[in-house]
Amino acid sequence: MAKETNGDRRSPFTGSSGRFFLGVLIMAGVFACAAAAYGQSSGSSSAPGEAGEPYPNMPSIAPIGVRIAKYLDVPASALGPAIDPAKGYRLQDLGKGLYMITDNAYQSMFLVYDRGVVVIDAPPGFAAHIPQAIADVSDKQITHIIYSHSHIDHIGGARALGGHPIIIAQEETLRLLKRAADPNRPLPTVTFSDKYTLRVGNQVLELSYHGNAHEPGNIFIYAPAQRVLMVVDIVFPGWMPWRRFALAQDIPGYFAQVEEIRKMDWDTLVGGHVARTGTHADVEVQAEFNRDVKQAAATALATTKPGEGLNPLDKANPWAGFDNYIDRVAAQCVNTLGPKWSTKLAGFDVYIWDQCYAMEQSLRIE
Ligand SMILES: [Zn+2]
How many Å lie between the centroid of ligand 1 and the Cα of residue 211? Predict the structure, then answer.
């Protein structure tokens, strides 16, 4: 689209009728852009750097960077119990002194034992409610904090909990937090490499490290008496993972951890996000989605011809050639997954392009 701008004071576009005319031109331009974006052929050639015609067989799911008229509805299976707006959080009894706190976007836990309370993660969005949530069920003080991983959105409320708790984390989390030097995320005082068992009173938490997936240091937290497993930013019950497999730093590692969670013995999964806890059925769905997106991206990579439809004038630009190829791979990947998954996982349309781009990249280089 050619931009219709004119800063000349003597322009015929100035004055009230001129402003109207300029408005018409801008609107015409917007519609021309829309036609170019959604039509099969605009019939006009584009200037360098401008958007041209869409690729053949474009998915109906809008690609990254295109405004969505209306996102797909969220299936009922993705919803959870409502939050009391007066409280700002919801407390879920996971049994035998273990509780989940949530604002239906983030999830953390605390474990009550005979002389105190162990807090597991402190998302800054609701950390100020954690002392109240504890007071709802106990008069004990916080003695320990466990960090699931270093990310600020899960532990950035730790300092606000006050006191001088023992802070436990995997050693990679300590390294990352030293680098971050964030006063809101106090450094762990106890670290471990592979496994750590916390025994307090008659309560037990088994912490274990399964390598890099989401980020180095992200651990599994298992409460054996309650049969609850907490693993943050890996499985999102009822939902598509956050974009690019929840920003997994190691996508093969991410896929492997979903399989590990699937095979482990537990009754309730706390995933750190969304409005409800997870079941084995949720993890089965996530694992099946992972297999399908991997297959779809692999097939698209194998069957898409590099350079097809590329402007011959761009032949000397290998990055342009790759961009064109990868876009067509991602479009095929999204097309393959849509019929089965668009109504099965909430947010399919929001992040499926991100997942396909992340998957093809992982398959090509990891
Ligand atoms: Zn994270």
Answer: 14
Six-digit token string for 200:
């307090």
Q: Rounded to an integer, what distance in angstroms lies between the CA atom of residue 340 and that of residue 362?
A: 23
How many angstroms separate the alpha carbon of residue 326 from the centre of ligand 1? Answer: 27
What's the mean pLDDT when you consider all of the chain? Answer: 90
The answer, yes or no, to whether residue 31 has pLDDT greater than 70, is no
Residue 213 Cα to ligand 1 midpoint, Å, equals 10
Q: Are 210 and 190 in contact (CB under 8 A)?
A: no
Tens of pLDDT, residue by residue over 300-353, are 999 999 999 999 999 999 999 999 999 999 999 999 999 999 999 999 999 999
pLDDT tens-digit readout, 135-172 = 999 999 999 999 999 999 999 999 999 999 999 999 99
Phi-psi region of 57 (alpha: psi -120 to 50; beta: other; left: phi over 0): left
Rounded distance from Cα 218 to ligand 1 centre (Å): 8
Average pLDDT over residues 44-73: 91
pLDDT at site 362: 98
Query: Which residues line ion ligand 1, judged by CB < 5 Å?
Result: 151, 233
Q: How far is the CA of 71 from the centre of ligand 1 (A)?
A: 25
pTM score, whole prediction: 0.87
Q: Which of 350, 363, 357 is nearest to 242 (CA)?
A: 350
For residue 247, report the distance from its CA to the centre of ligand 1, in Å: 8
Query: Which token pair is 257?
Result: 């951890």
pLDDT reading at 3 higher than 50: no
Residue 151 CA to ligand 1 center (angstroms) comes to 5
How far does the centroid of ligand 1 lie from the alpha carbon of residue 360, in Å?
22
- Cβ distance 234 to 109 under 8 Å? no
From 185, 176, 224, select the one nearest 204 (Cα to Cα). 224
Q: How far is the CA of 248 from the centre of ligand 1 (A)?
A: 9
Q: How far is the CA of 149 from the centre of ligand 1 (A)?
A: 7
